[in-house]
User: Fold Dihydrolipoyl dehydrogenase from Duganella alba.
Amino acid sequence: MKILRTEVAVIGAGTAGMTGYRAAKAGGKQAILIESNVYGTTCARVGCMPSKLLISAADAAHTLHTAADFGVHAGEVRIDGKAVMARVRSERDRFVGFVVESVDAYPAEDKLHGHARFLGPTRLQIDDHTVVEAERFVIATGSTPIVPDEWRAAGPRVIHSDAVFDWDDLPESVAVAGTGVIGLELGQSLHRLGVRVTIFGRGGSVAQLSDPEVLDVARSAMLDELDVRFKTRVVKVEQQGDGLAVTSEDTNGDQQTEHFSYLLAAIGRRPNVHHLGLENTGLQRDHHGIPLFNPQTMQCGDSAIFIAGDANNDRPQLPEAADHGRIAGENAARFPDVQPGLRRTPLAISFTEPQIATMGASYSELCITHAGRFAVGKVSFVNQGRSRVMLQNKGMLRVYAEYQSGRFLGAEMIGPRAENIGHLLSWAVQAGLTVDAMLDMPFYHPVVEEGVRSALRDLAHHLQHEPVHDCPCVDCTPAP
Assistant:
């Protein structure tokens, strides 16, 4: 068994791991990067980039299908599934190539391939070939899509999102389990590309939304286009011919069995922390097995072990993973002088249509931290000028601010240009702006952002009329 000694060992070569490795090296420490799988981040290989390639193809098809509403007739629309997936895979491979090139540029002696497992708080075993002795560690092992064992038993046509991007052609039909970001993005894209899609949701949730009014609008918007079965769960999956028999059950106990080419499990991802030998580290862990850590420093307890990215299950998104990795790597390099790093205002975007965005504090969070102490303003996009011009006049924006101070706290929305509006409003939160200061900003005409101004004006009105006992939290629990 080879013995390798280093100052910082980084486990995982995804976004968080690579950023953590570079930060540790920049801090003047000797560091190694350990990876058990192929190089390439979740985002580039099976996440945000290939999904946006599929969404872009779906948007092109949808534009042709809806052109007649503008009086423009494009003729018969033909979708070449093989060509769609060829472009998705080709561009995906290009993005992955950039990541692999970055890793290839690291010194060979800094890279180690194999599965890492803690033997103790300062030792790792890599497969059966190497023991790594290190002073500090960064755990950046990412996450894996969840597929229940009873579904997986039905065979290879039960898949998770990673498998979609290796298809050679578009299938005839897909059942999607889950109304989160992944399920809705992929489900809507496949539907617009001519695939028969049914989406099953155990509850009434839509992506990351928690505001009950925005949720109602979002559910209606999704139902206008898609076959979404809210409050319906998949209870049985069986292989049937060249596809699957999927049995679902609604809240009344009524069951229905339908045939699909695939079942796409989009019910969440599980942090990859269960085969790392964490029981040998002495770290305190939560009921999911994730080490307890400080979200400002990424430090696990008072140890020399740091955890970053999807592995810690705190805002599992690429920008957050990069920030996590930087904080963890810098603190591993300077340990024991651990310092808080930059944590940015939360911002999450779902690239459905209408788009969905949450920024700053969510409605459900404010119902806990600011119950009775925050006001709500809103705007519907149904009659918003620019939105109607574009025939994208669906959705709602709800904005939140603190009584007395007038400080802007956050927002939730579904509607046009949410990816852009989300940035503007999250910047306002991070800058600590008041609603009055935001209303002093320029607004052009005609733009979708005028809807933001309408919502802020409504919010300003409510801030001036603080109720004595009323609380805006219609339901202060997380959305079903």
About this structure: DSSP finds 14 helices and 22 strands in the chain. The two ends are 52 Å apart (CA to CA).
